[in-house]
User: Fold this.
Amino acid sequence: MTTYKWKIYLFAGLAERLGTRLLETEFAEDRLAAGELKRRLAAAHPEQADLIEVSFVARNQSFSPDEAEIGHGDEIALLPPVSGGSGLDAGNEAVPAATAPYAISAAVLSAEDVLALVHHPDHGAALLFAGTTRELTGGQRTVTLEYEAYEPMALAALRQIGDEIGERWPGTLCAIHHRIGPVGIGETSVLIAVSSPRRAPAYEASRYAIERLKQTVPIWKREVYEDGSEWKGHQTGPWDPLAPLAGEQP
Assistant:
């Protein structure tokens, strides 16, 4: 009987729990619904079924709902719930300014450079949001954070956020830089800059950008404590990156 080889890329806590970043398997079918693929993987790895069931399939770097059909030759990834953020050495070099409004980097982020990307002589409001590592969360002391990304898909998702902002608030400019690898206490993990002719769209777009990033961008965060570590996002219950934000109309 003919069988087809399937390759599924894994990330963050799912890769850690399954002990691999590339899962290879064979099925009799050359095409499956995304939901059926998850069901088969959960059956093959029952000890990780809880996390597989709440993960989302990506096909060719785009999210696929459970009913969508995928093929064995597609680039397939199984993405656990994102945190809203493999360790690389971050070093001390700042992200180069100017050319990339959307960037993912192991380098230290520069607020000045990112804010400069949205400068416009006709804009009277510019805002910068900086997400930083806090030391205490729920009474537990954090030593550092470690971020991991499905980089090509994450970059596309950041650009999509910028496109959505441009459609919702015409004329508003946006730039987003996210750091990966270790991010120490007080250091910046994400910078979001927006500018607009008036302040109201700038405030609204800035809030939209961070909430959308936490929902749709495949970046994961591991919190490292004094006595262990934990991937964040897996405990948040149902995750649907294709759903509208809370309070938004479909």
